[in-house]
Amino acid sequence: MKLTVIGCGYLGATHAAAMAELGHQVLGMDIDPDKVVSLNAGRAPFFERDLDDLLAKHTATGQLRFTTSYAETAAFADLHFIGVGTPQKPGEMAYDLSHLFSAVRQLAPRLTGPAVIVGKCTIPVGTAPQVIDILREFAPAGDQVDVCWNPEFLRESSAVEDTLHPDRIVLGLTGQGTRAESVIRQAYGKIIESGTPVIVTDLATAELVKSAANAFLATKISFINAMAEVCETSGADVQLLAEALGHDARIGRRGMRPGLGFGGGCLPKDIRGFMARAGELGADQALTFLREVDAINNRRRERMIDLAREQCGGVINGKNIAVWGAAFKPDTDDIRDSPALAVAQKLHQLGATVTVFDPKALDNARKAHPQLEFTDHPLGAVRDADLLLHLTEWPEFARLDPEAVAARVAVPRVIDGRSTLDPDRWRAAGWTYRALGRP
Ligand code: UDX
Description:
The protein is of the alpha/beta class.
């Protein structure tokens, strides 16, 4: 099939490459010319495992191309996926939907024949009908343009795998047996044939599934981090607690790793956007618990600062603090709402000299936080450090020899914000080892 993907960030670029991998002819569209040049050269403008391989493979044959032109996009196919960003409005809880509405307004007047528009971005419930209104108003093809809402559940760091092998496909449709449904089932044919469940819903339910899924995931993380707070006051160990809870299949261990909490471009803004929308709908009481989920998450960052202060003898001002990790999670260079950088930034404000190392996110971190020190080696970060903070659990940190690290610091003190360093090894190498939620 021929199809386009409008908006080529983490979601769109991955979707475009994955659709080419499924055998389709794909045109990706983005308004950022630099991004388009990079993607056409077979390189993502961000780090995502396996994505460059797919981009290189399919741009080389011409099966996958990228453009900045809406005219070319509209003319290329009659199936258009929309994967533009829906960030949080600055200073507000609600979503900024301007990219979505702008993309639909640009596309609509160019839709002269039957077309299917498939929304993939995360939106507040009730947005898809607004997209339909714009299409009805501006598309010459009128009601021959069908809309489907098909939320995307990919995780950064496993985006390609998640797109090609999703847990489920949710199709929000305007009615039964629409053209949109048969077209999208055909587009996802290989994925569906491999046994992936397809759940067909109305538009509102499909919009809500994504909000609800992210709210649940955030709640699960904050639940175990709330338990970490109780462990800290009672002498219990949240890692063992999580393991014991996780053996109950109804609870499950996945997505329940205690630590410094969640960040990134999705969970924090999605729970806030969900609360804001519930408020508009008069259902705010239903989601007030998400305020607490957000608050628990932010308290983990404060707790890390408190522990750092305690480890530094009560005074952070003037201390050398090494920070391992800048990305919001391992295996990505994304620093949006990164818990690690939030902690690093706060320590800097409190007067510490903070030196950050991250395997992939250094460039992004440097641009966003020029006041911090950066180094391109984990051992460089710890030179003369009074304290080491392990804040993003890249596997290479756990593999480093704690004795070699100890030889470079001023004082061997470490706080493990993600509990993936081996306490016994680090203590045996002379370190004072502390971790969130553990005695
Ligand atoms: C999330 C959802 O998982 C995905 O389905 C959705 O499409 C987009 O939002 P992502 O933001 O890529 O994906 O990352 P995820 O792996 O969910 O992690 C989010 C944050 O939570 C990270 O900061 C991570 O470190 C943290 N986290 C995750 C925990 O603290 N504990 C966990 O058990 C899992």
